[in-house]
Write a structure and sequence with these properties.
With 122 residues, this protein is an alpha+beta fold. The protein has a domain of 76 residues. Helices cover 31% and strands 9% of the residues. The protein has four helices and five strands. The strands form two sheets. The chain has a three-stranded antiparallel β-sheet. A hairpin with a 5-residue loop joins strand 3 and strand 4. The two termini are 26 Å apart.
Length: 122
């Protein structure tokens, strides 16, 4: 168990978890989240079938404390353009799309590629 001796903040904690992780793929998950059976194996297969892809994100359902489910079906453009700049712009758009669309930070990624980035910053 690797517990931080003090509160280092959300982003630094997420970066620390990434640096401590091992394996080919990586996914952040919060304490109040869960994954449906078969979710990870389906995501891993998708990335294995697309060696050019760095990561993927999926839709999700939010539940209120009373157990009421809320989700939004996204009908817009996905980051699948042949132009890398357009794909990146679309991924950034998802950060501001709303809390029940897609959240790229909670996707599945190739860990080695995440480690090549500037990591999470606030």
């Amino acid at each position: 168990l690797n517990v931080n001796p003090s509160n280092i903040g959300l982003h630094q904690n997420m970066n620390r978890v990434l640096r401590l992780a091992r394996g080919t793929f990586f996914r952040w998950i919060s304490a109040d989240d869960w994954l449906e059976p078969g979710y990870l194996s389906k995501c891993v297969k998708t990335l294995e079938d697309r060696p050019d892809a760095i990561g993927l994100t999926t839709g999700f359902t939010l539940y209120s404390p009373e157990g009421v489910a809320r989700w939004k079906h996204y009908r817009g453009e996905f980051p699948s353009s042949g132009d890398a700049a357009q794909r990146f712009e679309r991924m950034l758009w998802f950060y501001h799309a709303g809390d029940a669309i897609y959240d790229p930070i909670y996707g599945l990624f190739r860990r080695s590629r995440l480690l090549e980035t500037g990591m999470l910053r606030r």
